[in-house]
């Protein structure tokens, strides 16, 4: 609820709660949003189906099981080998076994923080590893950190998959394979 309240406030909205005497509560989120315009994709929206080159390994570290499951379900069908860890110490152990190309790392976890995990992974793996911080706390990522920076980039939760795919493409130098657009298929069929 804290994350929901903070995000609502950032968007100029509010969260209210009404408790019932018979039990239960109703939570309402009000946001002041403009109508979303449809995305312009030219010849049709392109759907990622995989990537070129060798299979890549991704380690997802978060103490929220739902977040881990969502990222794993998004990346595995694209051909990534995905490992998950629910804590900082577990992520250090898993990274030693799976040798990931990329670590998606939450900052706020019990025990060892994401910053501590990133520092340990960098000390052990140097620059051969890409680290993408994923956090709901925009203030933590907006600068102001003193000392070495151990991560390559960051994303703000709630995680949007198109943003994740864009960051992964840059960090891992990926060439995505797309599902052919319907318009392209029609044009190719007509030209035969």
Characterise the protein shown here.
The chain is α/β, with parallel strands linked by helices and 192 residues long. It folds into 2 domains: 1-32, no CATH class; 47-178, Response regulator (Rossmann fold). Helices cover 36% and strands 24% of the residues. It is built from 7 helices and 9 strands. It has helices at residues 2-10, 65-75, 88-98, 114-125, 138-141, 161-172, 182-191; strands spanning 14-19, 25-30, 47-51, 57-61, 81-85, 102-106, 130-135, 153-156, 176-179. The strands form 3 sheets. The chain has a 5-stranded parallel β-sheet, with helices on both faces. Strands 1-2 form a two-stranded antiparallel sheet. It has a two-stranded antiparallel ribbon with strand order 3-9. Helix 3 runs parallel beside helix 4. The longest helix is centred in the middle third of the chain and has 12 residues, at 114-125. The radius of gyration is 20 Å and the shape is globular.
